[in-house]
Write a structure and sequence with these properties.
This protein is α/β, with parallel strands linked by helices and about 190 residues long. The protein is about 30% helix and about 25% strand. A nine-stranded mixed β-sheet has the order 2-1-10-9-8-3-4-5-11, with helices on both faces. A two-stranded antiparallel ribbon has the order 6-7. The chain is globular, with a radius of gyration of 17 Å.
Length: about 190
């Protein structure tokens, strides 16, 4: 018989999780932030900007705090100008609107300054404000950088941060699909 919508959605999620778990990572490397480029091996967090600039199809970006000081700000602006690239940005609503946080624009300002991007911010669930603490960048559905770093100059240059860059289409698509499933539920489009 035909499965109800919720059952189909759950089945798809399970199959995608199995696919992601069964996939073989073709390349993985650490991504560091360390003052004075003190990391002895791997890429540095500022290299994520260069990955974003290579985008031909899509960029999906999720962070707690996104500041103008981030190298990704200009990179995303450049990529948004490419009409054929799908850009999605997921933000934490409280971090995007905290007064006194230097260089931390409101979500609506980010949406205006990244024309063509689909910008989302957290809402509430079951009476509680949701916090977006997922920090990753996905490029062209195949490169995934998961990091402890926010999108800010301090996180990209002065903090000690660690991330992992993985080249794996199945895993990257699974992460992107999970975020899309949260759209309209706990992540709401900023217009």
């Amino acid at each position: 018989g035909v499965l109800p919508g919720a059952e189909v959605e759950r089945s798809v999620a399970v199959l995608q999780a199995i696919q992601g778990a069964a996939s073989r990572v073709s390349a993985a490397s650490p991504v560091w932030t360390a003052p004075g480029y003190g990391a002895g091996f791997g890429d540095v967090t500022t290299s994520i900007r260069d990955l974003v600039l290579t985008a031909r199809v899509s960029v999906t970006c999720s962070t707690f705090n996104f500041q103008r000081s981030s190298g990704l700000w200009d990179a995303l602006s450049t990529v948004c100008a490419r009409e054929y690239v799908d850009v999605r940005v997921y933000l934490d609503a409280r971090a995007a609107s905290r007064p006194g946080w230097r260089n931390s624009p409101m979500a609506s300002e980010i949406a205006r300054q990244l024309p063509g991007a689909k910008v989302f911010q957290t809402g509430s669930f079951d009476g509680h404000q949701v916090t977006n603490h997922a920090k990753f960048v996905a490029v062209d559905h195949r490169l995934l950088v998961v990091t402890s770093a926010n999108l800010s100059r301090s996180a990209e240059e002065f903090n000690v941060e660690l991330g992992l860059e993985v080249e794996d289409t199945a895993l990257t698509e699974t992460v992107e699909a999970q975020m899309r499933r949260l759209e309209g539920r706990v992540l709401h489009r900023v217009t």
